[in-house]
Write a structure and sequence with these properties.
195 residues, alpha+beta, tt1808, chain A, six-stranded mixed sheet, 12 strands, 25% helix
């Protein structure tokens, strides 16, 4: 068989590209342990989790436990968001009390009340760009970006027409006031590490 014949055979056998197909491919790949994998706009991104990254996620998780039971929190778990092939593995997501999983046992984006993403150098553009747009389109009420390289958080609220109306910068060390949102609490950032 020639290369051309192989390609023709592959094209004839090809299946429609979907998130499920892409994640099935990923499950067959030797992805190193501790590597976050997600699909943003049909592109696969893999990034290793660093210690400072985990410390910030766990600090936010511990504080969210004041309102959210463990069963309504998810970290690095696939959630499909609106847009072209968006299967995100949010660093941390909190679900509404009324939340139900879909027929495949996955959280529905319609039930997400809060998302936190901790910036990694290689994928920062996703968190500030297409993921922020997808979260706004999905009407996630509260989106927090923690950026250890800049030493600050960005709080996005009031989603409208695929963007957030309100953006607030908060330096590490200052509180992220979520009391006026569905989250209803304040996040302390004084122990967030910088990189």
């Amino acid at each position: 068989m020639t290369v051309t014949e192989d390609r023709i055979t592959m094209a004839e056998e090809s299946v429609e590209l979907s998130l499920d197909v892409m994640f099935e491919w990923l499950e067959k790949m030797p992805v190193p342990e501790g590597t976050k994998v997600e699909i943003v706009g049909g592109n696969i991104f893999m990034s290793p989790q660093r210690q400072h990254h985990w410390e910030i996620i766990s600090a936010i998780f511990e504080q969210l436990r004041a309102k959210y039971p463990r069963k309504r929190l998810a970290s690095d778990v696939r959630i499909d968001f609106p847009g072209h092939l968006n299967g995100f593995a949010c660093d941390l997501a909190a679900m509404a009390e009324r939340s139900v999983k879909d027929g495949k046992g996955r959280w529905r984006y319609q039930d997400v009340e809060f998302v936190a993403e901790v910036i990694s150098k290689d994928t920062a553009a996703n968190d500030y760009g297409p993921k922020k747009s997808a979260y706004a389109t999905a009407e996630v009420p509260v989106y927090v970006i923690a950026d250890p390289y800049k030493g600050r958080c960005y709080l996005y609220t009031r989603p409208k027409d695929g963007d957030y109306v309100t953006r607030t910068k908060i330096d590490f060390g200052d509180d992220v006031d979520l009391t006026g949102t569905v989250v209803g609490l304040t996040l302390k950032t004084d122990e967030f590490p910088r990189d």
